[in-house]
């Protein structure tokens, strides 16, 4: 069969169009493959970030079904994540009262979109969890699910517990020290950074014939007299500046009588100066 020049031209155009279309399809498929690989890489990267993140997301749907990584199951002391929120209440998981409280907060968030926060201490697991819940983005779950971020702050809680114990011991020691100073038979006092009287004991109050320690502090009633042109506060300031304990023997009026006292000024770092006087 003889092919006319026109038919040959048409066939050539059709073949060329098929070639271009095939090349375009190949190029588009390769582009899709590249995008798919890039997406998979991004997903793996995001999953790695979530696996190492200090918080774990848990999605709670309206019917109570939950979606969360298996890492959360290990935090909760479970072998695997259950399907429903109510199933977290097990002997080795959360208590029934904790699940009831969490479920109520989740339902309120699902209805009103109000965020919530709560803390959970796992019984027998020595683990403390902080939960921050909010309404999930519709792109994540369009059905009005709640997104709960779970934080493990066990180490922080242990540190806080140690700090509380240390503070309690320090407070007890301070109370005992104040009691000892208050019961001391010799006048004792403490001056702050400005060298103003901040604390005096009962013996000091009695020696200056004041009504109370508050009256002494408020009136800045000095037990000691000026030495030359230097006041007791100025002498104590010199001890604070040099950070050296000083002792001196002075005469003072105690209980209306002249007495000889050995006075000591003891700087307490940069906080102030403690002083006491012994009748010799």
Question: What does the model show?
Answer:
It is a single chain. The protein has 280 residues and is an alpha+beta fold. The chain contains 7 helices and 10 strands. It has a 5-stranded antiparallel sheet with strand order 2-1-5-4-3, with helices on both faces. Strands 7-6-10-9-8 form a 5-stranded antiparallel sheet. The longest helix is centred in the first third of the chain and has 48 residues, at 5-52. The relative contact order is 0.07. The mean pLDDT is 78.
Write the layout of secondary structure elements.
Layout: H1 5-52, E1 55-60, E2 66-67, H2 70-75, H3 96-112, E3 116-122, E4 127-135, E5 146-152, H4 154-183, E6 188-191, E7 197-200, H5 202-207, H6 213-219, H7 232-242, E8 246-254, E9 257-267, E10 273-279
| Computed CA radius of gyration, to the nearest angstrom | 40 Å
Q: Major β-sheet, in short?
A: 5 strands, antiparallel
Order of helices and strands: HEEHHEEEHEEHHHEEE
What share of the residues does DSSP label as strand, in percent?
Answer: 15-25%
Total strand segments: 10
Short description:
With 280 residues, the protein is α+β, with helices and mostly antiparallel strands. Helix content is 45%, strand content 24%. The protein has helices at residues 5-52, 70-75, 96-112, 154-183, 202-207, 213-219, 232-242, and strands at 55-60, 66-67, 116-122, 127-135, 146-152, 188-191, 197-200, 246-254, 257-267, 273-279.
């Amino acid at each position: 069969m003889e092919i006319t020049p026109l038919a040959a031209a048409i066939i050539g155009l059709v073949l060329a169009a098929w070639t271009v279309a095939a090349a375009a399809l190949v190029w588009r498929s390769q582009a899709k493959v590249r995008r798919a690989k890039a997406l998979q890489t991004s997903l793996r990267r995001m999953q790695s970030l979530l696996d190492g993140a200090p918080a774990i997301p848990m999605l709670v749907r309206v019917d109570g079904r939950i979606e969360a990584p298996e890492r959360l199951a290990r935090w909760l002391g479970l072998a695997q994540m259950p399907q429903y929120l109510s199933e977290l209440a097990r002997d080795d998981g959360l208590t029934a009262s904790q699940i009831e409280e969490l479920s109520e907060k989740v339902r309120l968030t699902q209805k009103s979109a109000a965020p919530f926060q709560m803390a959970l201490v796992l019984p027998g697991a020595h683990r403390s969890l902080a939960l921050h819940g909010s309404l999930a983005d519709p792109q994540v779950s369009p059905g009005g699910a709640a997104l709960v971020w779970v934080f493990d702050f066990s180490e922080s809680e242990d540190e806080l517990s140690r700090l509380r114990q240390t503070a309690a011991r320090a407070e007890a020691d301070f109370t005992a020290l104040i009691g000892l100073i208050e019961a001391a038979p010799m006048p004792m006092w403490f001056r702050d950074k400005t060298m103003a009287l901040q604390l005096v004991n009962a013996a000091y109050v009695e020696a200056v014939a004041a009504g109370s320690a508050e009256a002494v502090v408020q009136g800045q009633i000095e037990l000691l007299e000026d030495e030359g042109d230097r006041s007791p506060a100025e002498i104590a300031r010199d001890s604070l500046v040099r950070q050296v304990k000083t002792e001196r023997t002075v005469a003072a009026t105690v209980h209306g009588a002249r007495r000889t006292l050995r006075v000591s000024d003891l700087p307490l770092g940069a906080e102030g100066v403690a002083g006491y006087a012994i009748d010799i």
